[in-house]
Input
Amino acid sequence: MIEVRHLTKQFGHHLAVNDISFSVEKREILAFLGPNGAGKSTTMRMITGFFPPTGGTVIIDGNDIRTDSLAARQKMGYLPENAPVYPDMRVTAYLNFCAEIRGLTGRSRRDRVAETLERCFLTHVRDQTVSTLSKGYKQRVCFAQSILHDPDYLILDEPTDGLDPNQKHEVRQMIREMSPSKAIIFSTHILDEVETVCSRAIIIADGKVVADDTPGGLKRRSSLHGTILLTAAGPLPDDICPYFEKITGVSQVAIVDTEQGRFTLRIFPDDPETSCINRILTAANWKNIDILSVSVEEGRLDEVFRQITADPEDA
Amino acid sequence: MHPKGNFVRILWAIMKRELAGYFGSPVAYVFLVIFLLLSGFFTFYLSRFFEAGQADLQGFFQWHPWLFMFLVPAVAMRLWAEERRLGTLELLFTFPVTPTEAILGKFLAAWCFIGIALFLTFPLVLTTLYLGSPDLGVTFCAYVGSFLMAGVFLSVGSMTSALTRSQVVSFILAVVICLFLILAGFPPIIQMFSGWAPLWLVDGVASISVITHFAAISRGVLDLRDILYYLSVMGFMIVVNGVILQNRESA
Ligand SMILES: Nc1ncnc2c1ncn2[C@@H]1O[C@H](COP(=O)(O)OP(=O)(O)OP(=O)(O)O)[C@@H](O)[C@H]1O
Ligand SMILES: [Mg+2]
Output
């Protein structure tokens, strides 16, 4: 388990990380979200022991990163932001070096490096110098380094940054596959990733945790959660909004779109968790509305993200 | 901390990587060529090796402090500044590696590299053997002294390299400190002090100079105190190096 306890980091007068606490168990995939400069990377640097915290500490599987740093670092794999890799080394030589540092030797090292090369789709560039690789390949080499020793704890700072859509998909897949035996923290600016990969998300703004929830829970905070989108053919009938608003359970109706002989309404229910679709459909039939599609909005993470992080003063 | 076997293993892994880095880049060969050319130039033109009519290498070694003053900081400047600039320091220091292992590994690799450069001057020794019968013991001592002096300059360069992300700044700082270490024992400087300063101060300033100790060793006198001097300056610089790296606020 990774336990982050009251972690604080001050740079001069600037409080970059302000009393962050949370813990991550094995089998959990935690996404770290937040605007630029929120303190995500700084927190990860403290978790991995690169920055000494100004206050608080991190316990990795019982080992305090401040007092028992070596044992804690042994159990972690870390992909830093911007994937720093020695540019003058060849890919295999670099991974061999990392493996040696991690204590892998002889045959087990060779096997492990070959296996990781294959897993990260690097086999065909294994003899290339890192400085001649494209950005995405560098990212993959650094990612390979982080999983090389099969660590129990993985800290990934924007692991899919700079990867093509196929590789993004592969990395997400890999993170999900590794999950049963590991606790994984990764930061990202891609909100789709949160829904497809992680089991929990923490949003950081201004160095503080402002939300700690499952992706579903976050989406429920959206003002659009539970609203019904209804698209129908024909011109927009007069008085359609008041007509629908009379239905029990409907609080408000808004016109989203009217174009090319069709219109779209957004219907806000009184309670997002109780459906009033049946009543809406019946009412629409009474009015002979030619319905093309109906859908229930789950809520959108980008909207929630903006709502939570945009104006901390308002919250 | 981890057992001793790990210390050696990690030290060796870091050294190997560094040395491979030296020989994988043209900088190393440029350095070797410049070092050999300059030492040849100094020995044959400025010290008039052939005209002196003596089969010894004084004329070769006397230039080493000045050669090393520039060349060793050039080797050392990238040690840490480059890691910081590239961000690779972040990975190195989140690996299960102690700062001692990292610093010593890098330092020893660079020292080996300079040792190789020194070794490549062996044709000069062969020349003296051909010309006459030099005292090989003295030559050996001079090599040891030269190697130790290079180590001192290297520890200075490694320390200044940890201070900054800029190799140029690191180089200039190291050259200035090395120059001070050389000049402190230079007769004009000593005389400048000896007029008014108490004797202990004159001796103190003179004794932190590499020149004083190097002169003794290169005459063939391997005194334990001289060796201790070199090792303690190196030790001091390496400890400062560690303190700087541990207290860095940024990458
Ligand atoms: N070494 C440093 N010295 C001074 N300030 C720093 C240092 N590192 C980070 N900061 C500051 O700390 C704050 C948090 O930075 P951090 O890199 O953690 O943000 P982030 O959440 O990772 O942002 P991004 O999404 O852009 O990666 C920023 O205001 C940054 O300027
Ligand atoms: Mg960041």
User: Anything to note?
Assistant: The CA atoms of residues 48 and 59 of chain B lie 8 Å apart. The two ends of chain B are 24 Å apart (CA to CA). Chain B touches chain A through 26 residues (CB under 8 Å).
